[in-house]
Automatic annotation (TrEMBL):
UniProt-listed SUPFAM superfamilies: PTS-regulatory domain, PRD, Winged helix' DNA-binding domain
Domain Mga helix-turn-helix: 105-172
Entries under InterPro entries matching the protein: BglG_antiterminators, HTH_11, Mga_HTH, PRD, PRD_sf, WH-like_DNA-bd_sf, WH_DNA-bd_sf
Keyword Transcription: yes
Domain annotation Helix-turn-helix type: ranges: 7-64
This protein's name: Putative licABCH operon regulator
Presence of keyword Repeat: yes
Length: 665
């Protein structure tokens, strides 16, 4: 049966690669069977195509072709088949997905499996299995597990049940769990299986209980916790319970998350399988702590006991490292302790259970979050280094980016200097109408203006230009002949025009030039059509070019390699170099002559920057907003390349403030 199923998948794969008809004898040649066999396979192939979002269309004299009617169903299946049947290059993504397939097969297996067994079941060669086993063993080790040796008893994968479930959850989430199964054994997916109605109701109970409690978790983790509840019940019923030590039980029961977990399990007991042991409830509570989203007003010392003191001690050490490496004292930002402690406490709990890597998520998901905080992510690597030095364990990329999110919140609390705007208001409907016009603007933006004076258009001729910054008028453009910058709006401004008043008039009062001047970025070097070879060679080039001595060259190269996972998003690579290692401030843009790969991700532009913040908070906020805009929209880089002016940076940052808070001081 395995060979027949593989042939159906191969036939579908061949048809999915082209939009032209292909004859049955050609299909037979490609899969190595007779034409009669292919024709006998057609009914099953039609059924598989239909389930995968496509119709198998047959035309006499031409052959067969697939007509897709549901792209959302078709594309995941096609992608998964490409991973297994394509002979064109071995991409890291393909290797990663094959490793996940192997893990899905062996994680629930009790008997010893050979390479030949796995290769046959997954329709892969023995050589590819051997190559992928390196990644399999690496990921097992991250979850405190390993493969058993031939002379050992018990399951094929050795490790605790809790660690096993965490890896099962990771594999389920980061692979195509809604796509087809390419192998016969479906034991893995059966552990997550539940009637749809019950599954939705269990999730509803969990979320409602969470809403009614004082506990919070990140939204991205609600789905995985709902899935864990299904996995918990299935594994417990299969005779694979979690077992905790007495000290672990005592540790978890102190947290308020324990009562939430207990409440969830009790409310779910109307469904079969939820009559579980106390250790199962405690393990679920532990996950709530692992993925806690601690609110601003939480009393950390009351709710997290000695962990608060440990967190405070650790982030103080972290802040000292930021002061040393970036000449920046982030402890002068209000709320720094609460914000950073809230970010580190869940990691300390994970560390206590040797579970720092259990929060692994897909790289695609992390890429999206890196968009929002490139500078904060760079700072967060200091935390990762300190964590490894102190606790001898590594932080996952998920934890690093989550902490970067807390850092980013802190940086966004830095206020730019703001000078209230002096504006003239004039409405074509007359003086009274202009007064109403003024009141509409003041009702929404009054505190942003130092004055908002009403004049007739002709009266404006008597006013000194230096007394006002803007004119807000309801006249047509051709009637305006004054020197003030002007915004034309309707007599009763629309919502869009009110936004224009904020984005153009009010944001002009944000004083960005002092922050830019403080950075001493006197020149912008542009390298067009740059011939990029690979990541390693480019990092060597930058290190030798920027380092002020041999020791600094080595440090730059090591640091850039260490932080590479948070350097790329949206085809832009940002390399931030610590200022004490370079001769002078750096701001360079490398425009590649074609799309290339940097750490397995596509890039078109590389930005290299090094600045001395010199304890200026507005300068660090400026760089944070600037780098975020580079990641958000490549047009910002194109504009700089065309204009070749450092002064253009202020307008890029000003544009970022359309959606970010500013100071009214």
């Amino acid at each position: 049966m395995a060979n027949e199923k593989k042939r159906i998948l191969q036939l579908f794969y061949i048809l999915a690669q082209q939009d032209q008809y292909i004859r049955s004898y050609e299909l037979a040649e490609k899969v190595g069977v007779t034409e009669r066999t292919v024709k006998n396979d057609i009914p099953e192939l039609e059924a598989f195509a239909k389930a995968s979002g496509a119709d198998l269309v047959a035309k006499k004299g031409k052959g067969y072709v697939l007509k897709v009617f549901d792209e959302d169903r078709f594309e995941p299946v096609k992608t998964q088949l490409i991973i297994h049947f394509s002979n064109v290059g071995e991409t890291p993504r393909a290797q990663n997905d094959r490793s996940n397939d192997i893990l899905r097969r062996i994680i629930v297996e009790n008997r010893f499996l050979t390479i030949e067994d796995i290769a046959e079941e997954l329709y892969l060669t023995k050589s590819s299995i051997r190559e992928d086993m390196k990644d399999v063993n690496f990921l097992l080790s991250k979850f405190n597990m390993r493969l058993k040796r031939r002379n050992e008893e018990g399951p094929l994968v050795k490790g605790s049940e809790f660690d096993r479930r965490m890896l099962m959850l990771c594999i389920f989430e980061n692979h195509y769990h809604e796509a087809i199964n390419l192998y016969k054994n479906t034991d893995f997916l059966s552990f997550f299986d539940r009637d749809d109605e019950e599954r939705y109701e269990i999730r509803h109970i969990f979320l409602k209980t969470l809403r009614d409690s004082d506990c919070h978790i990140l939204d991205i983790n609600t789905q995985r916790l709902s899935r864990y509840l299904l996995l918990m019940v299935s594994r417990y019923q299969a005779g694979c319970p979690i077992s905790l030590t007495q000290n672990q039980r005592k540790y978890i029961r102190r947290f308020r998350e324990y009562s939430v977990a207990k409440d969830v399990i009790e409310k779910c007991q109307r469904f079969s399988g939820f009559d579980v042991s106390e250790d199962e409830i405690l393990a679920f509570a532990l996950l709530l702590i692992f993925w806690a989203d601690i609110p601003w007003d939480c009393d950390l010392s009351q709710n997290y006991f000695e962990l608060h003191d440990e967190a405070q001690d650790f982030i103080t050490l972290f802040c000292k490292s930021i002061k040393k490496d970036y000449n920046l004292d982030i402890t002068t930002i209000p709320g720094w302790s609460q914000i950073l402690c809230a970010g580190i406490i869940p990691m300390l709990v994970q560390k206590d259970f040797n579970a720092s890597f259990h929060s692994v998520r897909s790289l695609h998901f992390e890429d999206a979050r890196i968009h929002d905080c490139p500078l904060a992510a760079k700072f967060a690597h200091n935390l990762a280094r300190l964590f490894e030095e102190r606790y001898h364990c590594q932080l996952s990329l998920y934890n690093l980016i989550t902490f970067a999110g807390h850092l980013n919140v802190l940086l966004l609390m830095i206020s730019y200097s703001f000078t209230p705007v002096r504006a003239i208001v004039s409405n074509g409907g007359g003086y009274l109408s202009s007064g109403i016009f003024k009141r509409i603007i003041e009702s929404r933006f009054g505190s942003y203006f130092s004055c908002l004076d009403v004049y007739e258009l002709y009266e404006m001729r008597k006013l000194p230009v230096k007394d006002y910054d803007w004119a807000i008028l309801s006249y047509p453009y051709y009637s305006y002949k004054y020197d003030w910058p002007c915004l034309m709006v309707d007599s009763i401004p629309t919502q869009s025009q009110m936004n224009d008043i904020y984005n153009q008039v009010i944001l002009s009062g944000v004083q960005l030039q002092p922050a830019l001047d403080h950075l001493h970025l006197t020149s912008l070097n542009i390298y067009r059509d740059f011939e990029y070879e690979n990541m390693d060679s480019f990092l060597r080039l930058i290190s030798y070019k920027m380092g002020k001595d041999a020791e600094c060259v080595d440090k730059i190269q090591v640091d850039l390699h260490y932080t590479v996972k948070t350097c790329v998003a949206n085809k832009v690579c940002i390399l931030f170099i610590k200022r004490r290692w370079v001769k002078k401030g750096i701001f360079e843009i490398y425009q590649l002559n074609q799309e290339k790969q940097f750490d397995e991700q596509p890039i078109l532009h590389i930005v290299v920057i090094s600045v001395d913040f010199d304890n200026n908070l507005e300068a660090v906020r400026f760089v944070n907003d600037l780098l975020m805009m580079f990641f958000k929209d490549n047009e910002n880089l194109w504009m700089l390349i065309e204009n070749h002016r450092v002064t253009g940076l202020t307008e890029i940052v000003r544009a970022s403030l359309k959606a970010l808070p500013i100071s009214l001081d």
